[in-house]
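Title: Comparing notes on inverse folding

I've been comparing how different people in this forum approach sequence design from structure. To keep things fair, I'm posting one structure and asking everyone to reply with a full sequence. Here's the target:
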C-alpha cells in the first residue's frame, strides 16, 4: 500500500476560500492563513485549483502562463511560502495542471494564430473546415480565425484552445513545465481532463457531439507513460487524472501501478444520475438505484483490475451533495454525515471539497445575474435562444450550475462569512450565519467533527483501504449497504438515503450473534448494537466492525 492509498485529500477553490488581502477574490496567503484549520481537520494533501496566470474566463482553467502566479492570487513567493508552511504541517500540495488546452492569450497561441508558417502553429489543432463536434460548454467546438482563414479546436470555451499533443514539442514543453513545479516542491498533480488529450488524426463527423472519438483517444496511454518517465519516475508524487466520460477499462489502465501512468482517476458517471438521458440541463431527481449500481461496479471493477479510485461527491464543477443526494432542510446535519460516511468507506482516496465538511448547501440563487460561471451563462443564453422558458431555464440552473459549489467558504457568522473584508465576487448563501466553521468547531455533534473523525479513521482502519468491496441489498430502494471484507473480519456500512425510517434484514454471513461487534462511526448520538434484522432512522448511517469467531 502506498501512503496516498491511506490518505484524504482536501480540495481548495482558492477564488472562494479566503482572501487575506481583503479582496473580492481569495488568494494564496488566504490558504496559508487556514493551514492550521486544515491540519486540525487531518487532511494529508491539498489540491488547489489553478492559480497560474490566466484571463480567468474559466476561473483559471484557461492558463496564459504556466510559470507565473496570477496576480489576483499573489506572488511566486506566496506560493513558495504555502508549499513550505503546508510541508511543516505534513501536508502536501497538489498542483492543478491544465494541458488539454491553454488560454488563447498564451504566447504559444498568440504566435500560432499570427501566420500559417509560425513555428508554434502546430502547437494547436487547425482545420480548413470544422467538423460537427460540440464544445462541452455549448455550441461548435471550432472557432474561425480570420487572419489565417482556418478553424481551431476548443473542446471547452472558445478562449480555451486545445493543444496538439501529437506534436512532440508540445509534450516536451508540458513535461518541462511539470518538472519546474515538481522541483519547486509540489507533492503531486491533478491533471485536468487528461483523457481528452489525444485526438484521432482524421476528425470524423459524429452522430453525437464527438466525444466518443477524442475520449480516451488513440495515444493517451502512450503520452501518459511518457509523462511518467519524464516527470514522475523516481519521485514521491500523487498524480490524479480527471477523466471525462471515460470507461472502467481505461481507468484501470490509467491507474494500475504496472501501467506506470497515474496514481488514481476521477470519473463522473455517478454524478450523472440526475441527468435524464444524459441531459444535464433539465431539473430532475436522482436515480438512487443507478447511483448504487455505478459506484458498486466501479468499486468491484477497479479492485479486480488493480486500479485505484479518486472518491468524491463534490468539486468546483458540481452542486453541493447535501442538496443533491441528501436533505438540505430538516435533515441537513444527519444526511450530510451519512453521505460522508457512505463515500469514505469505499475503496480509493477520498477527496473533501471545501465546505463539504460543514454540510454547505446550494445557495438557491434564482436570478441569472447571481451567476458567474462561463458554462452556466453560455447555456442560459443558448437555451433562451432555443425558446426554453425562463422558469425552466432557471430551474435547471439552480439545480445544476457549477456556481452552486463556488460560493465563498463559510468561516464564521461575520459579514461575508469571514471570507473577506470586501464584497465577494459571487454571493454568500443566506445560511452562512448558521452553517460555518466557527460554530461547528464548538459542536462535537457537527458535520465538521464527523468529517474529522472519518479522516482520522482512514489511518487506523486498514479495511477502509484494502477491504474487498461487496454490495448488499442491491435492489433496495432506500438503503445503500456494503461490506469491506478481510480475513475473518469486515466493515459493515449501512446508509439510509431517505428521510423515512426503514427495516432491513441482512445475510447471516455478514452479521450474526456469533460475531463480535464494534461501532466505528454513526450519525446519531445513540447507536445500539445490531443484529441481522435492523431498523434505520431517517438518513441514519453507521459502520460496524465485525469479527468472526
Ligand atoms: O472539467 C472538465 C469536465 O469535463 C467537467 O467537469 C465540466 O466542468 C463539465 O462537463 C461541464 O458541465 C475541468 C475543470 O474541472 C473545469 O472547471 C474546467 O472548466 C474544464 O475542465 C475545462 O478546463
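Reply #1:
Here's my take.
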Amino acid at each position: 500500500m502506498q501512503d496516498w492509498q491511506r490518505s484524504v485529500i482536501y480540495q481548495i477553490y482558492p477564488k472562494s476560500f479566503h482572501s487575506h488581502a481583503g479582496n473580492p477574490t481569495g488568494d494564496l496567503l488566504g490558504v496559508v492563513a487556514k493551514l492550521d484549520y486544515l491540519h486540525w481537520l487531518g487532511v494529508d494533501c491539498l489540491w488547489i485549483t489553478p492559480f497560474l496566470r490566466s484571463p480567468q474566463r474559466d476561473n483559471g482553467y484557461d492558463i496564459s502562463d504556466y510559470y507565473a502566479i496570477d496576480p489576483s492570487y499573489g506572488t511566486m513567493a506566496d506560493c513558495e511560502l504555502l508549499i513550505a508552511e503546508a510541508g511543516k504541517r505534513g501536508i502536501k500540495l497538489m498542483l492543478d495542471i491544465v494541458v488539454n488546452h491553454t488560454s488563447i492569450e498564451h504566447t504559444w497561441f498568440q504566435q500560432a494564430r499570427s501566420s500559417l508558417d509560425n513555428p508554434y502553429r502546430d502547437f494547436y489543432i487547425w482545420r480548413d473546415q470544422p467538423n460537427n463536434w460540440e464544445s462541452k460548454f455549448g455550441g461548435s467546438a471550432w472557432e474561425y480565425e480570420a487572419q489565417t482563414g482556418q478553424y481551431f479546436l476548443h473542446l471547452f470555451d472558445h478562449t480555451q484552445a486545445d493543444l496538439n499533443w501529437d506534436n512532440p514539442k508540445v509534450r516536451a514543453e508540458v513535461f518541462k513545465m511539470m518538472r519546474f513545479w515538481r522541483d519547486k516542491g509540489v507533492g503531486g498533480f491533478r491533471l485536468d481532463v487528461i483523457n481528452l488529450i489525444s485526438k484521432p488524426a482524421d476528425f470524423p463527423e459524429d452522430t453525437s457531439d464527438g466525444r466518443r472519438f477524442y475520449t480516451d483517444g488513440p495515444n493517451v496511454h502512450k503520452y501518459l507513460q511518457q509523462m511518467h518517465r519524464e516527470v514522475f519516475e523516481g519521485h514521491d508524487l500523487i498524480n490524479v487524472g480527471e477523466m471525462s466520460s471515460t470507461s472502467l477499462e481505461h481507468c484501470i489502465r490509467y491507474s494500475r501501478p504496472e501501467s506506470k501512468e497515474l496514481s488514481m482517476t476521477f470519473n463522473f458517471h455517478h454524478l450523472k444520475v440526475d441527468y435524464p438521458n444524459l441531459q444535464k440541463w433539465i431539473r430532475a431527481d436522482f436515480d438512487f438505484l443507478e447511483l448504487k449500481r455505478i459506484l458498486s461496479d466501479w468499486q468491484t471493477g477497479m479492485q479486480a483490475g488493480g486500479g485505484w479510485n479518486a472518491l468524491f461527491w463534490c468539486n468546483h464543477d458540481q452542486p453541493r451533495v447535501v442538496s443533491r443526494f441528501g436533505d438540505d432542510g430538516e435533515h441537513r446535519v444527519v444526511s450530510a454525515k451519512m453521505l460522508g460516511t457512505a463515500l469514505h468507506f469505499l475503496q480509493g482516496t477520498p477527496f473533501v471539497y471545501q465546505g463539504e465538511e460543514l454540510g454547505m448547501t446550494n445557495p438557491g440563487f434564482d436570478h441569472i445575474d447571481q451567476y458567474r460561471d462561463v458554462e452556466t451563462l453560455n447555456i442560459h443564453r443558448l437555451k433562451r435562444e432555443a425558446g426554453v422558458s425562463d422558469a425552466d431555464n432557471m430551474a435547471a440552473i439552480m439545480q445544476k450550475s457549477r456556481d452552486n459549489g463556488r460560493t465563498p467558504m463559510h468561516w464564521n457568522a461575520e459579514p461575508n462569512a469571514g471570507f473577506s473584508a470586501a464584497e465577494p465576487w459571487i454571493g454568500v448563501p443566506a445560511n452562512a450565519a448558521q452553517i460555518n466553521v466557527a460554530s461547528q468547531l464548538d459542536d462535537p455533534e457537527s458535520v465538521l467533527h464527523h468529517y474529522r473523525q472519518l479522516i482520522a479513521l482512514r489511518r487506523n482502519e486498514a479495511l477502509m483501504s484494502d477491504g474487498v468491496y461487496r454490495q448488499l441489498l442491491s435492489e433496495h430502494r432506500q438503503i445503500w449497504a456494503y461490506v469491506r471484507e478481510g480475513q475473518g473480519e469486515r466493515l459493515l456500512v449501512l446508509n439510509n438515503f431517505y428521510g423515512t425510517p426503514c427495516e432491513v434484514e441482512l445475510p447471516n454471513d455478514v452479521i450474526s450473534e456469533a460475531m463480535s461487534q464494534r461501532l466505528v462511526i454513526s450519525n446519531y448520538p445513540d447507536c445500539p448494537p445490531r443484529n441481522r434484522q435492523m431498523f434505520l432512522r431517517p438518513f441514519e448511517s453507521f459502520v460496524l466492525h465485525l469479527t468472526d469467531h
